[in-house]
Amino acid sequence: MTTFLWTILLVAQSQVFRGTLDLATWPKPDVDLQVSVAKVEIRPTEGTVLSVQQTPARDPEDSLLIYVESTDWGVRVSVRARRPKRSLGDWYRVFKHLPDSVQQVVILLPRGVTYGNATLDLGVAEGTVDLGGLAFQTLEFNLGVGELVLDFSEPAPQEGEDLEINVGVGDFTARRLGNGRFRFAQVNTGVAAATIDLSGPWPPRARMDASAGVADVCFHIPEDLGVRVETQGFLVVRDFDPLVPRNGTWVTPNYETAPHHLLLTLGGAFTHYEVTYGEEECDD
Q1: Nearest to 199 by CA among 174, 180, 221
Q2: Is 134 helix (H, G, I), strand (E, B) or coil?
Q3: How far apart are alpha carbons 81 and 64 in whole angstroms?
């Protein structure tokens, strides 16, 4: 009873923490990570403790803190700076003029927690985000400007609902996206070069929608995944040599016998889409 009352008081007061927070108290917390300008590494860790490690920020207002706030449906755990969100132009100017002194941030997300709705909001960033073995109900990943790798290095312990990836400007790589085990995925890229690896155990009847602006996007399809590709949009350039045309769509050679399947819909304007299959990889 004492632990329960302390939890209620903690949430009601929107407590602030530095460095670490044990998430074991909350069965399904929402998580919101906001990093404005940084060289970033986000990776999983065992147990239930969320950890934030960072080099000193040039401005103390940019130091990251952990906030715990009550919501109508539970608890939101946020990692963010005291400073209000910068505009994208502000982020770019800061990153451009501080190339050697950009803050370095490491965030460890515990695998011993099942997360509700999660948002990873990176303004200007370079580095890696590994979400392998983490369970999310929904996940929104936003990158404004930068060069970043998003990896699901291990399968999630359970299926999730929705994954949304938004990339503004830069170079982006997604690895083993099927390991996230989301039933629906959406990928939106602006002026970017993107490589999307579709490996992993997608749930039954999984779908992905992709939309891009002036971009080059390459999808890698492993041999154990059956994919049907549909296209929409204006002046979408298609390089689908490994696929087989079928009734106005394209399918992988192993579509009927593959253990996992995915419906992939591609749209956009002035976009070049490429597909590689099996041992053939996307060009770096």
Answers
A1: 221
A2: coil
A3: 4
The pLDDT averaged over each successive group of 10 residues in the chain (284 residues) is 41 75 92 92 97 87 89 88 64 52 90 96 94 97 94 97 94 96 95 92 96 87 95 75 90 93 88 89 78
Task: Report the SS3 class of residue 48.
Answer: coil
pLDDT at 271: 82
Which DSSP string corresponds to 199-222? Answer: -S-PPTTEEEEEEESSEEEEEEE-
Contacts of 256 (CB under 8 A, 6+ apart): 226
Q: What is the pTM of this model?
A: 0.88
Task: Give the integer Cα–Cα distance in Å for 193 and 209.
Answer: 17
| In the chain, beta strands by DSSP E | 16-17, 20-22, 30-45, 49-54, 64-71, 74-81, 104-110, 114-130, 135-151, 160-175, 182-197, 206-212, 215-221, 225-231, 234-239, 244-246, 249-251, 260-277
Which residue, among 93, 92, 176, 87, has the nearest Cα to 129 in the 3D structure? 176
Nearest Cα to Cα of residue 189 among 119, 269, 123: 269
Q: What is the pLDDT of residue 86?
A: 58
Q: How far apart are CA 149 and CA 105, in angstroms?
A: 15
pLDDT value, residue 103: 86
HSE (CB half, 13 Å, CA atoms) of 24? 6
Residue type present at position 5:
L
